Amino acid sequence: MVAIARALMAQPRILLLDEPSLGLAPAIVLDLFRIIRDINTEGVAILLVEQNVAMALDLAHRAYVLEEGRIVTEGAPPHCGGSRHIRRAYLGMEPDSPDPATGS
Asked: How far, in Å, CA of 104 to CA of 101, rounded?
């Protein structure tokens, strides 16, 4: 959180975040993602690299999923999260199981 605050002191137009949730307790991760959403709402663009796919897709306006350095899917978060490959490989879900966020 201190690193993010320090970066914001320069009043950037874009904030680059690389795995901000790494090693944090789940309750703190929820707070962190709320803060990231608030920063974006205030007009700062966010480039987020994150392995917590579900939370990153919930936050994103556009998503790119990389696998071994290649883009395997891109687009609006519902498109990326709905991909059979992504649901199986990154969300630990069977490709045809309901989305926990929407129930569909």
From this structure: 8
